[in-house]
Amino acid sequence: MNQGKNINRNLLTDATLGTPFAEAYRALRANITFRRIDRFTIDRPARTILVASAASGEGRTTTAINLGIIMAQSSPSVLIVDTDFRKPSMHKHLRTGANGHGPGIGLSDVLVGAADVDQVVLNTPFPRLWLITAGAAPPNPSELLASERMHLILSELQERADFVLLDSPPCLSYADAFLLARIADAVLYVVRAGHQEKSSQHRVQKQLQQAKAWILGVVFTDVEVDNAPRVDLSANGHAIGPQHRFAVGTPSEAERQTLARP
Ligand SMILES: Nc1ncnc2c1ncn2[C@@H]1O[C@H](COP(=O)(O)OP(=O)(O)OP(=O)(O)O)[C@@H](O)[C@H]1O
Ligand SMILES: [Mg+2]
To answer: Which of the pair, 145 or 41, is modelled with greater confidence?
Structure first.
């Protein structure tokens, strides 16, 4: 249902919901929505999920959106929150009405007390999928994300939506994702296949452990689904978290043609 020109050819649209590419996200949804976490003395499925990765461009934003679209097919309400204050992009990809040309008001505005949650929850082109954009660029992203208010807002959002998906900046560049990992129920760790560099992945893994993150699984982007088992982080000597692996993409050429269609 994306309108106009799709700026990210790997985002799902109504036309591609039946493709194997979409099916990979369904498998991911099935695995993560039924896995119980045991965190904050809560034993239940993860409802607030941070999508994180070591480096930029690994596919965090795409994973959050496509997973959100698929989750919203079977859940009453799914909320995506753009917690990437460094390079906010959800407003562009989900083209939310009046906010299509910029983030508009969003999370940062709620964090500084300039807006209420009700004012920033936006419709998306997908039923039951909601978005809170990053909002006005804040001068102090880490401070805001580490604040008690952020914790409170997240608790409130969790009351309103069945699942809350958080986008984030790359772990190797900023502390933001580690701060978010402390308050999210769980982390979905994205690795662009073939781009993982041993020492840096190791470092990020350690920091996530220090943040007491509950890693739900590792999502490999840009791999042939059939080849996924061959992509094995632990085989390279650097395992990340509980070894639940999922592969999403690359779309086939036929799927690409559908994906590229306006
Ligand atoms: N499963 C996938 N298979 C192939 N390509 C993908 C996949 N997921 C995302 N991509 C592509 O990778 C590129 C980067 O994706 P995306 O913007 O989601 O990454 P990011 O980690 O959020 O990047 P940034 O650090 O810029 O925020 C985009 O061109 C996107 O279409
Ligand atoms: Mg991104």
So the answer is: 145
